Automatic annotation (TrEMBL):
It is a single-pass type I membrane protein. InterPro entries: RAMP (IPR006985), RAMP_sf (IPR038126). This is Receptor activity modifying protein 2. The keyword Transmembrane applies.
Amino acid sequence: MEVNTRCTDLTYSDLEDEISYLYLDEEEPFEEEDQVNDCGDAYYDWIALYCWPKFHAAIVATDESSRCLWETVGSIYGELALCTGLLAEGMGCPMSSPTLDTFFVRIHAEYFASCSLPPNTTAPQPPLGTVIILTSLTVCLVPISVVLVLRKA
């Protein structure tokens, strides 16, 4: 395997190659007795080292007016999510963790803070009559159920 000298030259296939040495075979993961899965700062550092540089370079190269269009950034964002997932798997960390949440919140705050949903994406509201009927039914059924239960007792 060729060793890359720059972090930004890494590809996801390189990362997969690096992670695959942790497993002797697919059935039985290799674990050292003294190995402790550090899913906090070390995981965050690895994400910052392997995943963030490629994402940052791609986002900075994207026109700022296009950063809010999913068609433009969807694949870049997807690669970032894939990279963080591969690292989590390789380090034995859960796919969803406070560390990963913190990382993505920072990504959104830095690169997507000016993005907003289009005005037509609000969920449609049910008719008022339907809401009143369903609410009234629930309010009436609770006391009736209580009376029936107490009556049997």
